[in-house]
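Repro case for the chain-ordering regression, as requested:
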Amino acid sequence: MTVERSDGALVIEDVSLALRVGEVMGIVGESGSGKSTLALALLGYARRGLRIAHGSVRVAETDMLQLDKAELRAARREVVAYVAQDPGAALNPMLSLETLLTEVLAGNRTEKNARAREILRKVGLPDDNSFLQRKPRQLSGGQQQRIAIAMAVIAKPRLIILDEPTTGLDVSTRARVLDLIRQLCISDSLTAIYVSHDLAVIANVADHVTVMYGGQVVEQGCMQDVLSAPRHPYTRALFDAVPSIQARQALRPIHGRVPGVGEGPSGCIFSDRCEYVVEECSVRPALNLAGNTLVRCVRPEPVQTFGARSVAVGHPACRPTETRPILEARSIDAFYGNRQILFDVGLKVEPGRCLAVVGESGSGKSTLSRCLIGLHGNVTGQLTLDGRPLPLTVGLRDQNARLRLQYIFQNSNASLNPRRTVGASLAAALDIGRGTTPKRSGTVVAKALERVGISPDLATRYPAELSGGQRQRVAIARALVAEPSVLLCDEVTSSLDVSVQASVIELLRSLLDDGLGMLFVTHDLAVVRNIADSVVVLSAGRIVECGDIDTVLSSPRHPYTQSLLTNMLQLPSADAGQEASVATML
Amino acid sequence: MSVDSPNDSAVIGVLAWAWPLLGRLMQGVLTLLAVSLLIFLAARALPGDVANMILGQSATQDQLAALRTQLGLDQPLWWQYLTWLGGILHGDWGVSLANGQPVAEILTLGVRNSATLSGVALAVMLPLSLLVGVIAAQFRDGFVDRLFLGMSMVANAVPDFVTGTVLVALFATTVLHVLPAVSFIPPGDSPFSYPDALVLPAITVIIPGVMYLARLVRVAVIDVMATEYIQTAILKGMSPSRILFRHALPNAVAPIIPAASLVAAFTVGGVVVVEYLFAYPGIGSALVDAVTNRDLPVIQANVLVIASAYFILNLIADALAQRDDASTQQGRSQA
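-- result from build under test --
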């Protein structure tokens, strides 16, 4: 199968998949690798500006690409179904759940209604009439995704294609949705194709895996084989970038970025980012069978031939615990209107140490970080900075206090001014309150960019010209030019690919070594394990557990922390005897 | 997150929607008061002496003075204003200076005729905009779409009276002679008894309205067709007509409704020019006549009516926009 852009540039190139009934195929790759385009092409659908050039998709006896329009519509109702990533966007806000669920069915109203109730029970939602009359917006994110799945399976299709169905959900909701998908595959003998950038999720649901890069399949095989012996350097790089919850270790980012459509190198598509590139890589390798897996690499040896995989890193030399905290918060209560969001929260941020704030969405963790920076108005409690009282809102703080606390937002795309160059954004942060000469500000900006691993030449670029990871680094650099003593990081890695997340985590670790204090808000415990020294677990606005990172993660006492840990998905341990180095990594 | 019962949240939703509107209503009453004062002052500022105008050049100073006293024109301005306003609040709009007819009578006739014209124009304009907008969106970037965009550019750039004049030349005088150039409707008769007199004035109002609204519809439909839920509907195997009517249009129309109410408000205001052009006997023509005759009570009454209509339609636009916001926020708080 090949999909090309209207100008002929190839978006996905010559991809083949085969699945037996009841099996789950995982498709994995970074953003921009063509996995969503592939998923849609399997339904005979191409986004505006793309077209399916040639190929065939046979599901049971139907060839999706040979059908006329009416037949294709029927096939999309009865043979292949699709579940999109963001159910909030994929469910029509003006239609009731009943309409959404039953419009694919034939038959009279009573039959349709009965089938809708049956499917609601199956996905674990209420099946009464008042629920059926609700609109999607009246449901939580997890419920919406259940409806999207119910909508896909209600007409009993043979194949279901799931495009990142759990990416926007928090860990416990994700675990429940994954359970549902597994259960449906067994009970309805449904075949599924599961697209995700998250290897841990794929490893937990899939029987087979296809690794995509730059629109090509680079590795394909049985999940167990690929997991225990990844053969393509890209597959291995993806594995190396996944943080583990068991141990703090060096994460190895993949340098460079995913090539745009039609921009890849002429030889092996991964050759410009591959650490093991050799001369033969200038000719595009074919997909060859190596062991039990198909690999597109000139040297498909098992990975250990490339050297050791993982390096555990310790915590930075433990500073005496009596160091004075830089930032301290006591009995913080915060409200939205009349609703109390935070109850009596207290914490300390110490120099050179990272405090993680963990909780699910709605637990109040973002509100907490906004209280600390002074952006949340409706709050009571005490804050101190270096032992001196700190006003609760940013408007009342003096210049020095504002500079010493810096905030990094989750979405660097929205937090950087799109009409300012990177350099201008940094210089603006520098100018506040200090009369700096342009020359000095130039050097400071260059130094800050170098510190976050970005070439100072990029200072003249606009944020839109940078990749997601570069933008987040620039956002960090902007915080650094103020020479802060505390960084407040709000979910800074959540919207990044694992490979990019790895590079940001490595950067933040090195900043800790410089003596910065850090507050790191996240829902991802594996990231916490890899960056934090101590942790605060927040549930429904209250601190339910806090303490040293090792203590909390290895022997959690509060049931809420335990449930967070149970629902964490990890790459399952591969066969230890077969692959020693993998076992140490996991 | 919210634990309110559905009833409670419904009540809160209605309140959240109605409260700002009450505020808007108060604001509107104040605005109308300010407008009444402005109209009053503007009418007084018109050049020319009313008494002179009524009695003609041959009147003596004594006759003029007597008439001024009779009309109350020798009183201080603020007193005149309060008397006039007080009269209106009692339902007494005064008497025309030109022919002694009660203003209320002139007004009733004008309002009925103008409301008929605006009503007919809107009844055609709104569905037609929807149709044209959807068709343009369906053929996005194609010939039909480009033609529509070009035409709408021209139609919106040309003032109403030019459009009207061209239409008269095409259908009434120069090219074809199928419709009357002047909309003569005897006082007391309903405009519906003279449908051909309605056609040209209505079309003159409809063209710019459709060209503007259909553009909004076109953009809204294109936006909605690009959403993920439409993609989902396509991938669910829904037919194109079901996607358009059931999935896309309800979402596309919502943001256009407030704009449509604003266009309705503009239509009511714009009717003045069109009525004058076709000598259509509505408040617009009445206003123009009254200005020529320095018929102060009639001028004031007509402008006040037009301003009120404008205000009410704006209020409807606000209410519809607010309801959209309220339902969005309510949905979010429950999510």
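Ordering looks correct now. Chain B touches chain A at residues 1, 226-239, 242, 246-247, 250-251, 254, 328, 331-332, 334-335 (CB under 8 Å).
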